Amino acid sequence: MAIGIFDSGLGGLTVLDACAKRLPDVPFKYFADSANAPYGVRDADDIYDLTTKAVGRLFEEGCDLVILACNTASAAALRRMQEGWVPRDKRVLGVFVPLIEALTERQWGDNSPPREVDVKHVALFATPATVASRAFQRELAFRAIGVDVEAQACGGVVDAIEDGDLILAEALVKSHVDALKRKMPDPGAAILGCTHYPLMEAEFQAALGADVKVYSQANLVAESLADYLERHPEMLGQGQATGYLTTGDAQRVSDRATQFLRRKIEFAPA
After folding, report:
1. The pTM is what?
2. Has 63 been annotated as catalytic?
3. Which of 26, 164, 181, 267 has the highest Cβ tally under 10 A?
4. What stretch(es) of the chain map to CATH 3.40.50.1860?
């Protein structure tokens, strides 16, 4: 009954941790494509090929439902996967929709026409590939009107986090927030559009100011997953044990994961 969680690297561990706390009886299989990270600087076809290969591996592990805990993969590959690649008895879900539904205060599964919302100016911080895809803006347009989104590609942040260089990551966050504010001086809300970024949420909040509401994804995705499984219990796959797989150096990835989550995490080679 395992649920698969995929990310290009370690950022999706923020989603895994939240999901495990929300659903303590559900085992999770995590796949980190660390050998090919980061995805944010790759083109759409490359991201699609890498993502389908990783998700296919999770299907083999007994996961009938896989969450793309990677905004870049959700932006660049998910729709194409759902339209022609995902088998009928499997499901692959992204991380954008729960975030947008929280921003627009809509219930999960609300398919009513788009309407005006309180927040008019939204800052989006994401990888270059996510920004280029405009997937966030497209999904938002299905649910809200009159919202101005200013996107900031945050080059280097994922690499710094993956390398464990949080001093560099903090400096880059400040630089990217400054660049965003030159384009949108007074955002009402900020979206951390990469699952690595919650690890730097305090730094984003400090740079943006206390009056800007910062949305990150982990807890929102966990709540949405719990709701989805309540409505679709048949999507609990055949996998029975929590586990961690990586295409990278398993020991190095394990050490970084243990540092991030502050508990022992052991990855096995994929």
Report:
1. 0.86
2. no
3. 267
4. 3-94+218-269, 97-215
